[in-house]
């Protein structure tokens, strides 16, 4: 009886441990999910470690998904950032760019992800960006684009975000 009881207790303890471990594993998965990368393409692959470092350096909280663009209409568009209403940073990159170009584009778009979170919600960010675009006179000259370009120039060499393969 004593034996059966201790067996039962041990089993219960193991059960709890399993549940705790499962919860921990789920948590770790959630933590490692925030960055989703596309398959390597045209001689370029993304550097998960470099991107994680950059995301942490900018203090970005919401998940980041990087995708190869299939829907860029304008020839001059090399990348876009959208903070979706369900709070994902979706970054699209032109697929036929060199690794060096992809590096710069991703740094630029991640800068927008960092800027956007300052506003607390995707709606507030879109409103602030539209306002800046109007008062800045154009897409290129609004304060958020200027800041993102400054970050490109300043940190372009410090982060390895895309690698030639
Ligand atoms: Zn931009």
List keywords for this structure.
165 residues, 2 domains, 4-stranded mixed β-sheet, two-stranded antiparallel sheet, 5 helices, 53% helix, 14% strand, binds zinc ion
Distance between the termini: 65 Å
CATH 2nd-level architecture of the largest domain? 2-Layer Sandwich
Characterize the largest beta sheet: strand count, sense, and whether it forms a barrel. Answer: 4 strands, mixed
Mean pLDDT: 85
Query: Hey, roughly how much beta strand do the residues contain?
Result: 5-15%
Could you say which structural class the secondary elements and strand pairing correspond to? alpha/beta
Work out the helix count. 5
Strands in their spatial order, largest beta sheet? 1-3-5-4
Count of distinct strands: 6
Shape: globular
In terms of quaternary structure, what is this? single chain
What does this structure look like?
The structure is a single chain. This protein is α/β, with parallel strands linked by helices and 165 residues long. It is built from five helices and six strands. It has two domains: 1-32; 35-164, Zincin-like (2-Layer Sandwich), CATH 3.30.2010. The structure holds zinc ion (ZN). Zinc ion binds next to α3 and α5.
Set out the fold topology.
Blueprint: H1 2-32, E1 35-36, E2 44-46, H2 48-57, E3 64-68, E4 79-83, E5 89-93, H3 99-117, H4 122-136, H5 143-155, E6 162-164
Helix pairs in contact: 3-5
The structure holds zinc ion.
Provide a quick synopsis of the model.
The chain is α/β, with parallel strands linked by helices and 165 residues long. The protein has five helices and six strands; from the N terminus they run H-E-E-H-E-E-E-H-H-H-E. Helix content is 53%, strand content 14%.
């Amino acid at each position: 009886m004593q034996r059966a009881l201790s067996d039962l207790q041990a089993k219960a303890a193991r059960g709890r441990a399993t549940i705790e471990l499962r919860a921990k594993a789920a948590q770790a998965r959630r933590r490692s999910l925030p960055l989703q990368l596309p398959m390597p393409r045209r001689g370029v692959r993304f550097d998960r470690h470099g991107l994680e470092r950059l995301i942490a350096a900018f203090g970005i909280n919401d998940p980041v998904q990087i995708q190869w663009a299939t829907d860029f209409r304008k020839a001059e568009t090399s990348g876009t950032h959208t903070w979706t209403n369900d709070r994902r940073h979706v970054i699209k990159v032109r697929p036929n760019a060199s690794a060096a170009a992809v590096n710069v584009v991703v740094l630029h778009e991640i800068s927008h992800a960092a800027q956007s979170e300052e506003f607390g919600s995707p709606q507030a960010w879109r409103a602030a960006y539209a306002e800046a675009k109007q008062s800045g006179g154009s897409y290129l000259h609004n304060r958020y684009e200027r800041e993102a370009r400054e970050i490109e120039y300043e940190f372009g060499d410090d982060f390895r975000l895309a690698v030639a393969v």
